[in-house]
């Protein structure tokens, strides 16, 4: 029985460590992260497997350590005040080498994560009008820079607009803004 107990304790400790790693990543990134963004790091570094990640996210959301929001096609996770309290109390239980890897990862990827979060585009089929509604947005530090809603007749057009918005946001933003603030010609 003692082997089972120590095996169970090791598994319980690993589950706790998994949760702390996720909380630490979210705290250091200081941005809502999608499942893919979280899993990319924890799975590549072999900190946990797919099932442990799913279980940890679900359990922490259920107890209020994480908030889950829907953004375009992604579910994003953000650490709550309660999650921060738990992390601050137990942070030292994360091995220093893991904390250092997370800090390095955040330093290398935060800019691209932030850019992905600030430029959005998505489309929806409108059953009433039989058109596709394309929603595009550009944001900076929670401030709306520009939001555009466009109705188009085909899914291919909607996809193309979404792709072009993300790929050419700097050019499009500048052109649209310049046209809108230009004095009319007489």
CATH homologous superfamily classification of the largest domain: Winged helix-like DNA-binding domain superfamily/Winged helix DNA-binding domain
What is the terminal-to-terminal distance? 91 Å
Portion of residues within helices: 55-70%
CATH C-level class of the largest domain: Mainly Alpha
SSE order, one letter for each helix or strand:
HEHHEEHHEEEHH
Beta content comes to 15-25%
Which strand order do you get reading across the main beta sheet? 1-3-2
Shape annotation: elongated
Low-confidence stretches: none
Mind describing the biggest β-sheet? 3 strands, antiparallel
Number of helices: 7
| CATH fold-type name of the largest domain | Arc Repressor Mutant, subunit A
Radius of gyration: 21 Å
Total of domains: 2
**Count of extended strands:** 6
């Amino acid at each position: 029985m003692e082997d089972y107990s120590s095996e169970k304790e090791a598994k319980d400790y690993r589950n706790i460590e998994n949760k702390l790693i996720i909380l630490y990543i979210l705290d250091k990134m200081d941005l809502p992260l999608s499942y893919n963004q979280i899993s990319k790091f924890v799975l590549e570094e072999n900190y946990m497997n797919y099932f442990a990640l799913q279980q940890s996210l679900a359990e922490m959301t259920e107890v209020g350590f994480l908030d889950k929001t829907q953004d375009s096609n992604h579910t994003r996770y953000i650490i709550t005040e309660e999650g921060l309290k738990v992390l601050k109390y137990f942070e030292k239980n994360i091995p220093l080498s893991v904390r250092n890897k997370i800090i390095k990862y955040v330093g290398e990827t935060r800019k691209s994560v932030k850019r992905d979060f600030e430029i959005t585009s998505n489309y929806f089929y409108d059953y009433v009008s039989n058109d596709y509604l394309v929603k595009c947005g550009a944001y900076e530090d929670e401030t709306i820079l520009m939001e555009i809603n466009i109705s188009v007749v085909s899914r291919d057009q909607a996809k193309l607009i979404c792709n072009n918005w993300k790929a050419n946001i700097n050019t499009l933003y500048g052109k649209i803004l310049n046209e809108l603030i230009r004095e009319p010609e007489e």
